Amino acid sequence: MTPSPTLKKRFLLSALALLPWMSHAGTSAVSPSPVETVAKTDLITFDTELKGRVEVRDNNYDFNSSVNGPQDASWLLTRFRLGMLVTPTSWFKVYVQGQDIREIGGSRPNNIGSFGADGDDVFDVLQAWADFGHDADGLSLRAGRQPLNYGDQRLLGNPQWSNPTRAWDALRLRYAQETWQLDLFVGSPVNFVNNRWNQSDYFSTREARNAIVSGLYFSSKSLIPWQSVTDFYLLNEQANKAAGAPGSPLGAVGKTNFFTLGTLMKGDPKKLHNWDYEMEMALQYGRVAGLDHLAFAGHWGTGYNFEHAWKPRLGVQYNYASGDDDATDGTNNTFQNMFPGNHALYGFMDTTGWMNLQNPQLNFSIQPTSKLKLTLDYNLYWNATNNDAWYGANTTSTVRPVNADARRASSFRGQEVDLNAYYKLNTHVALQAGYSVFFAGKYLAQTGASDTAQFGYAQVQVNF
Asked: Which residues form the Alginate export domain (predicted)?
């Protein structure tokens, strides 16, 4: 399947918008780090980020070539961040970071989340926290607006692909040693809205959801000698699902209070003769939207790292999340994806969340140079049950209504191929580009439109 002329035209025109950003590029061979300082003293450190990404999407949401909707277009996403770290003493520090995001072009409304838009949010507070103690050694407390990012972000993530990303008004108590740490935290997710100060559910009078997430998360690098990661966690989510609110359970309203008990493990290829593996499993129980809740999800993967200058790796994985087989039995079995960083975990086009899912994958990567990495991923998708919806990566949108046609249809959603390139130009500049295509399966064909979907992007990020 070759890119359509329309997609190629959109991508070419939109990519021109990135050229001004590219003028910052240099030639150093040093790899870029996540945060570089633009100014620093013993007391105050400043950091800044500039990011621009052109996206071109066609049929990504409706799989319907006969309708040219607001999501079938191209746009430029920009993000600017400015942060300041103040360290008066070795045991106390304060960090404040502002963020400005814009969506330029296309026909989507510039409201965050509307038709999947990253949207606009003129300069607002992304982080504002104080640390007491030593974050990496002994006991410490972080209080204020901050990211909560655990494991592979399958349940709690700080997704940097998303232009707004995610923030929490939270408290985090940590005890850390050289090879392990234990976190106890509680927080409320921040809502990003343009033209007013962003507030979390806890402090906002406009939000009916009132979500509060707390948890205990243990992570070790050495508990099992041949594993680089051994994590155990217990999470709790409390919220309210109001009438008309999207997401699982479909149509249900009421109080939510459930626990997630899980583990994440990763094998170290240096200790396993070039083999690696990873496994995450999570069991949920409690109540969701007034219904009894019991659900399960898992991720299992393994791969081989070849001894070659280009560092090739070939891997396979399988992702599963339960769905609700009977909407009338008073019990919800749809796994709750919580507040994840789902991007690229189940395909780069972000059609899918960790809910009502079966997803085998084949993954291949090479590094021809120290600065260039190429990845090729092949995904297959099935519903766990056709009595539940196909949920998107944002965890709330659904691709098809759950009706008689959907229940009778094949459970095979389709297949996706992702090709991506990552280039570290120098210490400050990172480039990224990719192309994805989704071939519709029988589930789409038997429930509505089933045209091929395509996605292309090019991104530059500059850190100082």
From this structure: 45-452
